[in-house]
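Aggregate trends can hide what the representation actually does to any particular protein. This step matters because it turns folding into a mapping between discrete strings. For completeness, the protein is quoted in full, as a sequence line and a line of structure tokens:
=====
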Amino acid sequence: ADFHAGAMPSAMSLVLGSLVLPACGSSTSAPNDSGGLTCPRGGAPVATTSVTVRDSSFDPACIVVPAGSTVTWTNTGMASHTVTSDTGAPETFDSGALGTAGTFKWTFTNPGTVNYHCIPHQSIGMVGTVIVQ
């Protein structure tokens, strides 16, 4: 077949695009098989143990890990941030202030959903979730 610009129907382009995008990802992430889980703020959790702390968000904001996994948060932002479990979470932790390039690690032992936040930036939506299976 001789295809040229505009010859492929747009619906076919969308299908092909959706087939290609899921194959992209970070080499530090485990396969993204969330098992039908949904994050508290929508979407599927990412199977990874590495979270990047930015100046206004955690990336990814919602992850899924097996019990016994250690998650590492790394601050790549210019401001100081915290990684602090929400009140009532099944596990309680607080990183304290993480400056630029600061890291915090926590091993999750109890299955459940752990919501967390950055204390100084929670009001602007700097929140995250770890789903422990």
About this structure: The mean pLDDT is 81. The helical segments are 10-20. The beta strands are 46-47, 50-53, 58-59, 62-65, 69-75, 84-85, 103-108, 112-117, 127-132. Residues 56 and 126 are 6 Å apart (CA to CA).
